[in-house]
């Protein structure tokens, strides 16, 4: 019995130790920690293994589902993390990783993140965040001002108003977009007379109240998939997310948009919101926002701009005008973990009308009491970390001009890369970059020429083969682990059909022209793999049938 | 012109420096960083100012809404952070901060968080997370197993299934609860015959399809406020969140619950979900889960358990049975940033049926393709950080037995504190702790006795005064900054009216009995403040009127 008590005391002491004794600098974890502070790029370079183990192999390391009974030494666990997690993660900061929207981080983000984590504030309420609440309000106001350009008086009036918030800080763009449409829906069905509003009475009664048969959200086919989730979640149904075709430059077709507005009117379906895109996820194009603002006003609906990617273009004197009209949006989404270079998990939505978020205001007895400045009364999420601090840091340290430089650099680099692709005999540019995103595919110029002459059926066959080629190319490049582009499927105007294309996002300032050239070189090497060569021989054979008589083998043979 | 080019080049070089040159160890930020790794408790102790500046004063430091044009030196910014943000934050890790659900963190969480931040993985897709995806799947499976106790064969079958996920990792419990109810809704209105499901067709057509007039969610009055948001968001309306009264122990009243089920049946309103609570936010009580599972089965609705707080009680051999019946829930929410001691921003929801999340499955052309193991196809959120790594670390390093110790310790301490309150002449225990949360109020025993004898009107008056006393007490204690309890308003059975009570959460293992005693001592000092004394004199006067004739001054005078 006394022995049992000794064990219990020893366990308790170990437990306290976990909470009170930091890792020794010479412990494995201490050493990693130190290595990361000294040189994160070097750490990632050294510890992330380039060569891909198959996902199935990796899964074997994460297969045990029983929670360990006994505690493990931190050092032992750290070895596991180093070998099985860090080594097998993705080097998203590598300058050759240009396929997705994750880039290198400014160095100061790491120590500041540690301060944030150590403080462990909870932004849902002032009682667990104190100065972090006014700080987050300031960040939201700064972004609001970037978009809407209000004056000092306006912000002095609203920034710290206890009953309102100029926007909502979110875990990402999806929650930001959902919040925007939620606000739009609740404002459309605001309390009036006997009707107590949709928040209280629900969607069915609300539609009856306004006497309409349905509710729709309009956006171009390039809209982010989060809008589909929002339409589902909010009870509209995906049928009522009206996808409008785009013009040759991936921008919403305004004529078709107007036609859809009219169709909805005829069918007694209320347009809830029109969503403009400032930087489509796949091609980086910007919708004609000013013209869309006109249409939203004409048909009386909320105008939301999804600027999750492109918002920070507003920092650039040279390129700001691309987003002209955004200041007329009722709400705007901007992701901080994208072009504000903040670590993953930071999005925002700002509202033109400083009282808009009242439409989703909520309270509870133990927090979020009326009159408190708790930000949680105006967010979809509850408890939230102090990530706004990192946005605050970025805006303060990098400054408007620093971000401008980053934006200008990325757009310039995209144009350079587009020119390289155009000049290359083996690649076809499939979307002209407006911001810093472009798409292209492996498709030798000779095949491009044949595609123009081909019959519709021949074109379909050729493109199907090229789709397979580009899919394999992207997979093998990813698995080789040296460079990375992503892939998507886009319906491209000249072909009138959906194609598999390679997608490039140029936001990492450490990506050089040489790296871009090396991406194309590596891709040219990869297409020599037997499986792809086999496909290209079929492409050649098909090309040979196009027009009269056989032509010189244009593609695979030419390399 | 060449000068202009020099400036541009210098700017560019500074920009690269931000991304490539780490903070020097002797820089301000480097020093803070080092100080935090060496001794976070000491750092927080030294740098967080205890005495409260008013929020209005703090706001003055966060008032400028113009994004700075020019970059700032990191060192300069760090000084600002230290003086204006860190100093004025809340010491949530302090052992005397027992008012909310944020506790001290195990030390290893900090360096591991830094690794997570440096890797900057995005869990929405394998292409930006690789090993982090199987790791997150493993964490979800571990929590699933903790709740549902499936066997090895079950988990081997489902853990890494590309078409399914055993749960969703979320930014917090709110998103977890919303996800659970979203899944419940979409499963109730699953595609059938011509009906393509609610995700596609929306709520109005779905109700027609099932021929019901509405949709309701049932939960006790102690339900978390996120459920109200969910009812609003999903289109049900808050009217259809049916709040059931509780018994004297803050558990849902089963008779009233059954009566509401029958009422809904009569009104042709379909019960979408019954929500049981395992650890109410305000009082920490656990609903009778097994009996609720029976009712949910009888009336054919989804049974969700919100175990955001209490879920980890399952680690404890001694206390696990309190949650008995949870294994029959269709879905369960558990927050990792609460009793798994992970930094802010980590929640989870697990589903009994491994195919349940198919109800909200979604895809996109550039990611989340059919057949991929991307976790983003089954989450409400899009891009997400690799926080699951910290849960993985906690489960591995602390182990089941370590968490058991933490749980047992908290519950034991709550019982100790409850006894201290009961024995104290000046306080009244207002909810008996079942887990590690309790409520009480300042109400001297003599007043308690009078309250029993008082008429209904007298009781109302007395309680109104006591509400003011406790409100002021909580505010002044918070502002003094030495210790912290929160407050809420609860309708308590013996009084039949809503009262302001003090709320205590005992999850920090560093909170000792001495600290608890000092909280009561401090509160006894605070009630001597003139404003509160004045109120207590009124209480005394009212007490004197109760029953026949004057009684000895029982309260304020007695101290």
TrEMBL record, chains A, B:
**Top-level lineage group:** Bacteria
Q: Which GO terms describe its molecular function?
A: carboxy-lyase activity; pyridoxal phosphate binding
A Pfam family matched in the record: Pyridoxal_deC
GO cellular component terms, alphabetically, are: cytoplasm
Q: Which cofactor does it need?
A: pyridoxal 5'-phosphate
Q: Which InterPro entries match?
A: Asp_decarboxylase_pyridox (IPR022517), PyrdxlP-dep_de-COase (IPR002129), PyrdxlP-dep_Trfase (IPR015424), PyrdxlP-dep_Trfase_major (IPR015421), PyrdxlP-dep_Trfase_small (IPR015422)
N6-(pyridoxal phosphate)lysine PTM sites in chain numbering: 338
UniProt keyword annotations, A-Z: Decarboxylase, Lyase, Pyridoxal phosphate
* One record GO biological process: carboxylic acid metabolic process
Q: Which PANTHER family match?
A: CYSTEINE SULFINIC ACID DECARBOXYLASE (PTHR45677:SF8), GLUTAMATE DECARBOXYLASE-RELATED (PTHR45677)
Similarity field:
Belongs to the group II decarboxylase family.
Name of this chain's protein: Putative pyridoxal-dependent aspartate 1-decarboxylase
Originating organism: Desulfuromonas soudanensis
